[in-house]
Automatic annotation (TrEMBL):
Residues 38-48 have a biased composition (Low complexity). Keywords: Acyltransferase, Cell shape, Cell wall biogenesis/degradation, Peptidoglycan synthesis, Signal, Transferase. The active site is at H336, C354. The keyword Cell wall biogenesis/degradation applies. Residues 33-52 are annotated as: Disordered. This is Ig-like domain-containing protein. The lineage of its organism: Bacteria, Bacillati, Actinomycetota, Actinomycetes, Micromonosporales. It comes from Paractinoplanes aksuensis. Residues 257-378 form the L,D-TPase catalytic domain. It comes from the Bacteria. Pathway: Cell wall biogenesis; peptidoglycan biosynthesis. The keyword Transmembrane does not apply.
Length: 413
């Protein structure tokens, strides 16, 4: 069936751009924004150094923001300019003397508070660096944060806390309005992902800057924990705007479950943990409304819904009850039960772009899939548009990493 956009999850501020396609419904889920995880490798906060400073080893240490600086964004980090040692302790306190928690960046270049600072507050910070011989150097600063910004960039994170996702689940962040190229590097530096067990990954932006995806060269390993913090609350995002708030979630990756659809055979092959467990006939989009070929993921599941295309197709539109619907694109392509096309499935394409399957097969799939399971369609007359759904896997790794606003490590190129 062909339908118009319905958001997979209700974002705190924004919703995706509507596109015409297989049907329409007005139900919207609720997204969850969770507590802030750490931003990188741990560093002690609040501990005092036990060693005396020594002039025998020339440690050079300066910190930012500069002492006395005002109107500092609440996203402020304690930055270091250091030679002759490494930072071993960072202590930060608010105007009431309460300690502020935070962590060191993995590269040791700065200390990141675990949550945005408060507006119009004075903060003090003390940084201790230690040389190889045990001698230390201490530097301190105090600064005052800015007031509430007049313009904000809305943000959203398509990830629920304590949920289990498929192996192709990308980390998807949205920005409204989109972030311009000149401002993306600073924003990307504040988007943290930790995988357990450790797996490489890179951020990549869509051309208009409204979305950024995080994925690795391969699908996630089953059992992986994804810990995400989008630490853009109060961060300058360009054009006098500041990020609306931090977003965070911790989720897990489940078993491998892949669906591969071939227009030539008009069959879907289902693999679990790399082994074929089922094949089933399908009917794809007819000539005038072809299904998209590409690598997609399941974005939403609804056991029962209504496809309504009357607002886009007028007199040619329809209202149809649908069961076991699984969204693949924003433009409205789904896998769903289609009892009216059972006779065509495996033989010819009659849908409005969706993957039609028999009711029993639709239920079988619905009972086993997870949000984030990959779906590959090949051999149709239409190429999947990048950004029409969660599409980072539709680009080869060499192309995907070109969308990063920061240099990609040599070992990932």
């Amino acid at each position: 069936m062909r339908r118009t956009l319905v958001a997979v999850m209700a974002m705190a501020v924004i919703t995706p751009v509507a596109l015409a396609a297989c049907g329409k419904d007005d139900d919207k889920g609720a997204n969850a924004w969770m507590s802030t995880p750490s931003a990188g490798a741990s560093a002690s906060a609040g501990a005092d150094s036990s060693r005396e400073e020594s002039a025998t080893v020339p440690i050079s240490l300066a910190v930012t923001p500069a002492t006395g600086k005002t109107d500092v964004p609440v996203s402020a980090e304690i930055g270091f300019k250091l030679a002759g040692g490494k930072v071993t302790t960072v202590t930060m306190k608010d105007s009431a003397g309460k300690a502020v928690a935070g962590t060191l960046r993995e590269d040791g270049s700065a200390w990141v508070p675990s949550a945005p600072l408060k507006t119009k507050q004075k903060y003090t910070a003390s940084v201790v660096a230690t040389a190889d011989d045990g001698s230390t150097k201490t530097a301190a600063t105090s600064f005052t944060t800015m007031g509430k910004p007049g313009k904000k960039t809305g943000t959203g994170l398509y990830l629920f806390d304590d949920r289990t996702y498929g192996v192709a689940m990308p980390v998807v962040v949205e920005f409204s309005p989109g972030v311009k190229k000149a401002d993306r590097a600073a924003v990307q530096k504040r988007m943290f992902v930790t995988t357990t067990p450790a797996q490489p990954g890179v951020w990549s932006w869509t051309p208009n800057g409204t979305q950024a995806y995080y994925r690795g060269p391969e699908f996630w390993k089953s059992g992986t924990e994804l810990k995400v913090r989008i630490a853009v609350g109060g961060l300058p995002t360009g054009g006098g705007r500041y990020g609306d708030r931090d977003r965070a979630a911790t989720a897990k990756i489940g078993r491998s479950f892949e669906m591969k659809v071939d227009n030539r055979t008009k069959k879907m092959t289902v693999l679990q943990d790399g082994k074929t467990i089922k094949t089933m006939p399908v009917s794809l989009g007819k000539k005038g409304t072809p299904s998209s070929s590409g690598v997609m993921v399941v974005m939403e599941k609804k056991e029962a819904t209504v496809f309504d295309t009357t607002d886009t197709d007028g007199a040619d539109g329809y209202v149809t009850d649908i069961e076991f619907a699984q969204r693949l694109t924003w433009s409205g392509q789904y896998i769903h039960s289609a009892p009216w096309s059972v006779g065509d499935q495996g033989r010819r394409n009659v849908s409005h772009g969706c993957v039609n399957v028999a009711p029993g097969n639709a239920r079988w799939l619905f009972d086993r899939t997870l949000i984030g399971d990959p779906v590959t369609v090949k051999g149709t007359g239409d190429k999947l548009s990048y950004g029409n759904g969660w599409t980072p896997w539709d680009k080869p790794w060499s192309e995907f990493i070109k969308g990063s606003a920061l240099p990609v490590p040599a070992n990932l190129k």
